[in-house]
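Exercise 7b. Backbone tokens:
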């Protein structure tokens, strides 16, 4: 692995936790070039909801490539884009009564967030955006400004302004009424808070520690935004596309955000793709006012369409995800009964185990890797071990991984 050490930037991170060379991947498994196989409870940080090299999606892509179809197209009309938009409207938007316009802002989640922030400021004429403690929205400057992680923010090298953090659900252990501080600042002419253009929120904070907001908290936030004429942006980059069960993570809260950010698994196959969904009356862009060279990734349109047709024509995947999420929760509750000071978190197949000692969380992740299970840590101090397997994982694979995970936790707790 000398070439990685000698030539690749010091910014590399995941490969430091998993110091092997991966070569093949199928379903829920990653294979190294020397023949070992690892059960993947990370799923590309949520970009591989349908597993590695999903055969249905792969065949759709292979057929498309074999016919010399268009790959790169900026924002030109293509047959692949049309097929995706038609299927997205038919299977996702229309059944949920959502009339969003679809913007292709660029290929990644942070591109979607940047376009959402930019549009909210353009529509309202205001600069400030409210974000939440422990939020993570991306690594470009605008997205970083509404993120909470001090290490990532520090990498910007300049002041990150025009954003105001507020406490996320349960930040104060529910000792105070929801939005007590936020609503007081909005209502008090002496608070010094500039009226925000928007509020941006994750319904489940992934990088922030698998913090799942209560549905009533999300509904209260939506009502507060309506009351004060503030746009509501939901960042569903990691938790959308079925990660928590329903296609959108905010559905159970019965809210309709003004803007929704999607990326990661929207492309289906792990190919880069992002969407920004916008209420029609907010779609005030001038042609070309926000663009990007790779916003027309037709290979992603093809696999995204295949994913929608395969997994979202009915509710089987949603029900399966919720059932598997309960399976994980039961396993985590069993661990919590055996190990003092640990706390299960999450919804659907976005689960975490919070440990009182962040060092132990890192040891658990390392112990899992030794047992050929891939898990990562998250949270402000990396104190939460995160479990995010593919949604297509079998019950047997899930049970296998949970057994390895329990062994890893118990081995570290016993030290």
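Sequence design result:
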């Amino acid at each position: 692995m000398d070439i990685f050490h000698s030539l690749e930037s010091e910014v590399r991170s995941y490969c430091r936790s998993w110091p092997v060379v991966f070569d093949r991947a199928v379903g829920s498994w990653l294979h190294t070039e020397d023949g070992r196989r690892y059960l993947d409870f990370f799923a590309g940080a949520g970009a591989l909801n349908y597993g590695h090299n999903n055969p249905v999606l792969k065949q759709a892509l292979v057929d498309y490539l074999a016919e010399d179809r268009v790959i790169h197209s900026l924002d030109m009309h293509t047959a692949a884009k049309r097929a995706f938009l038609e299927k997205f409207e038919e299977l996702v938007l229309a059944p949920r009564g959502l009339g969003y316009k679809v913007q292709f802002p660029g290929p990644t989640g942070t591109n979607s967030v940047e376009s959402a922030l930019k549009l909210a400021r353009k529509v309202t004429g205001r600069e400030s955006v409210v974000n939440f403690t422990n939020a993570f929205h991306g690594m470009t400057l605008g997205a970083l400004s509404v993120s909470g992680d001090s290490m990532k923010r520090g990498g910007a090298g300049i002041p990150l302004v025009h954003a105001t953090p507020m406490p996320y659900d349960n930040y104060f252990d529910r000792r105070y009424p929801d939005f007590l501080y936020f609503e007081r600042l909005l209502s008090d002419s002496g608070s010094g808070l500039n009226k925000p253009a928007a509020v941006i929120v994750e319904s489940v904070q992934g990088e922030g520690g698998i913090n799942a907001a209560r549905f009533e908290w999300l509904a209260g936030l939506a009502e507060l935004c309506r009351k004060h004429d503030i746009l509501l942006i939901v960042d569903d980059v990691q938790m959308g596309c079925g990660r928590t069960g329903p296609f959108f993570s905010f559905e159970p809260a019965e809210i309709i955000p003004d803007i929704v950010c999607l990326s990661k698994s929207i492309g289906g196959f792990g190919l880069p793709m992002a969407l920004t969904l916008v209420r029609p009356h907010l779609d005030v862009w001038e042609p070309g006012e926000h663009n990007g060279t790779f916003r027309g990734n037709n290979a992603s349109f093809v696999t995204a369409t295949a994913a929608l047709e395969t997994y979202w024509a009915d509710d089987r995947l949603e029900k399966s995800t919720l059932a598997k999420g309960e399976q994980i929760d039961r396993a985590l509750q069993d661990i919590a009964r055996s190990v003092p000071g640990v706390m299960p978190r999450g919804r659907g197949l976005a689960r975490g185990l919070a440990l009182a000692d962040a060092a132990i969380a890192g040891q658990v992740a390392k112990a899992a890797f030794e047992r050929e299970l891939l898990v990562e840590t998250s949270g402000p101090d990396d104190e939460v071990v995160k479990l995010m397997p593919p949604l297509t994982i079998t019950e047997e694979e899930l049970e296998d991984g949970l057994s390895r995970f329990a062994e890893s936790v118990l081995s570290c707790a016993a030290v």
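Instructor comment: The first helix runs from residue 2 to 7. The two ends are 32 Å apart (CA to CA).
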